[in-house]
Amino acid sequence: MHVTALLxxxxxxxxxxxxxxxxxxxxxxxxxxxxxKNSVLVNDWYCSSDDGKILEAAETLGYKRILRxxxxxxxxxxxxxxxxxxxxxxxxxxxxxDILVVILANNVTVKSKWITECIEQMQYNxxxxxxxxxxxxDNDHHPLRAKILNIDGTLSMYDNNSKGVISSNRQxxxxxxxxxxxxxxxxxxxxxxxxxxQPPWTFMGDCIYPYIVDESIDIHSEQDLLFAxxxxxxxxxx
Length: 238
Prior knowledge:
2 domains; eight-stranded mixed β-sheet; two-stranded antiparallel sheet; 12 strands
């Protein structure tokens, strides 16, 4: 099976140039991009961005550039838009991957082993699995503990369909998992089929397998940069 890695990042962000900010002598995007570069199952590497600095940093790691149109790099733009644009650009080069590894440029918490094992899981049951994605458990933010703000200023349960007694102890609740925004291994046939999938990431399809990790750090603030640096120091090796 042909496996393509697609590094995605846009220049217009809340933290300016966050994808290329220096962490321990490397741009933020380096760590995830390097992990994908080192996976033995990836055949080629591309970077989709509207930003020259991001594209140049990715090129130093052997990623070929896909210049994303400005209209697909707005704050309201959806990830599926840049994915479909990239697949169209690859098709012009006679490349139609079976598996697309989407790597998010603002997350350093990625290991080559994780990518390889997720690809292997996809390959093992390609006709059924639509996505393999890292997830982390976080019962602190369980939907049964969440509230919505009503028009009158009061709070109500976010999930009004819950029945029975709900414990206030997080450890008593069923395990709650959140998607990591570090990388996603996607079945390209499923994406191109336009079949409905689980919202809000409908392009992941409806047969999503988890790859459980301890944590995931999206970089949106200066504080996130500090946590990312600590993770790299504890986990990263060339």
